[in-house]
Amino acid sequence: MTSMLNVRDLHAYYGQVQALYGLSFSLNEGSLTTLLGANGAGKTTTLRAICNMVRSTGAIEFDGAPLSGKSTESIVRLGIAHVPQGRGTFTTMTVEENLQLGAISRKDTAAIASDIERMYEHFPVLKERHTQQAGTLSGGEQQMLAVARALMLRPRLMLLDEPSFGLAPLVVRDLFKILGKINREDKVTILVVEQNAQLALELADQAYVIETGRIVMSGNASDIATNEDVRKSYLGY
């Protein structure tokens, strides 16, 4: 498989406080990869560093081209969508207005309309709520809207930060099924940061485990899932 994203010797900082210590990993095109770790391990910082939202050093390459020095907006335009923790929908705008905003950098009006309908196929509840203000949606519906809005960019790579946070287990299962479908059918490469390690490992092809800003384990998700240390620390059995 072709490598889409390469991260080498990544260090990241908040002011004088260092959060990442020399992370190196890669994502194959079309893969679905999960980054696991406890709160404060550096998972969110890793996603922010890829998008140049925190101060960092090291090399990050997307399709062989360096991302260093590029603005977050420029990185998004390259085809990298970031869905942050907390969803971040525009609460006073309708569902459809949020989706249209996700495609604001695009000029292909007919294709945008087609993509909105495709989002409604992925997330039927959003079609039912298309005229409803985003702030009145349930937490699960807002998370679906955040993912759909990111997909309106037609990204090649999607970074998801704790998509299951605060959601009921059945909603989480449905959301992860949709993410798997998007990965397989739309060929979107996905890197997901997730506290629900068991579900993330069921979904993913590859997995990395991060502790205190360092990657301490990596491999096939199925192998990581059966690792005794991972089971004890993250899977609870």
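The above is record 1. Record 2 follows with the same two-line structure.
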Amino acid sequence: MLRRTFVSTLGASVAAPALITSSRADDWPARQVKVVIPYPPGGPTDISTRIVMEKAGQLLGQPILFDNKGGASGMIGAEYAKTQPADGYTFLAATVAMVAITRHLQPIPFDPDKDFLTVARMSTSWAALAVHPSVPANTMAEFIEYVRANPGKVNYGSAGLATITHLYGEILNLEAGIKLVHVPYKGSAQATQDLLGGQVQAQFDQTVLPHVLAGRLKGLAIIADGRWPHKPEIPTLKETGYGKQGGESWYGVLAPAGTPAAIVTKMSAAIDKALKSPDVLEKLDKGGAKATYLDPAAMRAQIDTESRYFADVIKRGNVKIN
């Protein structure tokens, strides 16, 4: 009897954490949820994350607090989010650069494979190569010839060192045998403002799209698998003979390692549902993005594949960030 009592008590003690976790997931969220955005306000990560997660919060019945912690190409915000309690009340907006590119170019303050759990990929941007009206080129071929004739004199802005908006230019340099000069900013919005002002001559980004549509910038190529519906006359980068290496700029959500699986599943489902909402789809489209949901397992597989791919590109191209 004593042995049976001991075993019964032991079984209860082992089962307790699971019961607590289950109860926590059932009650979650019981208060405001914070989403750390590791880039400044106004950029594509900020815009897409706010659109989707605001709706997800409504579906979950709790408001979302957005906390912009920009700097160091997303590393400051990621390092902060890594240290937060794994209780389901802090999530991190993430980009392909943060988890699959930067790690191969410089030391980073977190391990994308161990410090975070994947929650969902939300969206993929319609990016474009846009140039200032003063650049004497209206096609990709003309732009390549212009840069080739002026090596080291044509600057392109990016969202920061080791971002995909940086790597796009480096890959084009390799593929076309040209020398674009990289000018890193603290976010895409700042780079676009300087492009509009003529301080830089080109940019590979989502934030240029509204200005291309309005005629303030010249769009030479769309960086996506298909043409942008709002300007179907602009060819894709692949159609111009470049960008064959692939790679798209996407936005997703991570959770600190240790966050209960049931909470991750619940948040992922809310994001999936939010991405099917007509108003979310309309807002994403206006912001230059499209819904491309992936569940936690599929997102993790994509990160693994892209990390290997970009590591190979960086090695073969001898890409440096300084």
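Residues 33 and 64 are 5 Å apart (CA to CA).
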